[in-house]
Amino acid sequence: MKILVINGPNINMLGIREPAIYGSTTFQGLCEYLEETAAKLGVELEHYQSNHEGDIVTKIQQAYGVFDGIVINPAAYTHTSVAILDALKSVAIPAVEVHISDPMEREEFRHISYAGLYCEKTIRGHGIPGYGEAMEYLAEIYGK
């Protein structure tokens, strides 16, 4: 099984940006955790981060026919990007949405998730381990 993990804007600033909300794990620490989890699950992994909406859309489109599952943390684009929603729908790859914090416990504008309208599962507020939960779910349901 091949899983693509996509992270949106400012996730590259983990460990620096608002550690009271996002924790002290750095982006490099997240990447290492993803690699360790993939090895444990016996799945292939590619991880990608961009601060640019169009680049994320392109990456989703390029996943068509290549990946069996997507784990996506659209970050701020969660609440604004119909383009990311449409890209997920167009490739029809099983996807799980992940949020390090719980947007439902934050400002009201963060309560809407466009990507979540497509994703079959959303994991909120579990910190970095939420990515592992998402990968485990995809491997269990769709693993080959």
Give the number of DSSP strands: 5
Distance between the termini: 6 Å
Mean pLDDT: 93
Please tell me the total number of domains.
Answer: 1
Instruction: Tally the helices.
Output: 5
Sheet-strand content, in percent, reads: 15-25%
Main sheet summary: 5 strands, parallel
Following the backbone from N to C, one meets helices and strands in this order, namely EHHEHEHEEH
Please state the structural category. Answer: alpha/beta
Query: Class, according to the CATH hierarchy?
Result: Alpha Beta
For the CA atoms, what is the radius of gyration? 14 Å
Principal-axes geometry comes out as globular
Q: Provide the spatial order of strands within the biggest beta sheet.
A: 2-1-3-4-5
Looking at the structure, the CATH topology is Rossmann fold
Task: Describe it.
The structure is a single chain. With 144 residues, the protein is of the alpha/beta class. It has one domain: Rossmann fold (3-Layer(aba) Sandwich), CATH 3.40.50. It is 37% helix and 18% strand. The chain contains 5 helices and 5 strands, in the order βααβαβαββα. Strands 2-1-3-4-5 form a 5-stranded parallel beta sheet, sandwiched between helices. Helix 4 links the parallel strand 3 (69-73) and strand 4 (95-99). The longest helix is centred in the first third of the chain and has 15 residues, at 27-41. The chain is globular. It starts with a strand and ends with a helix. 38% of the residues are buried.
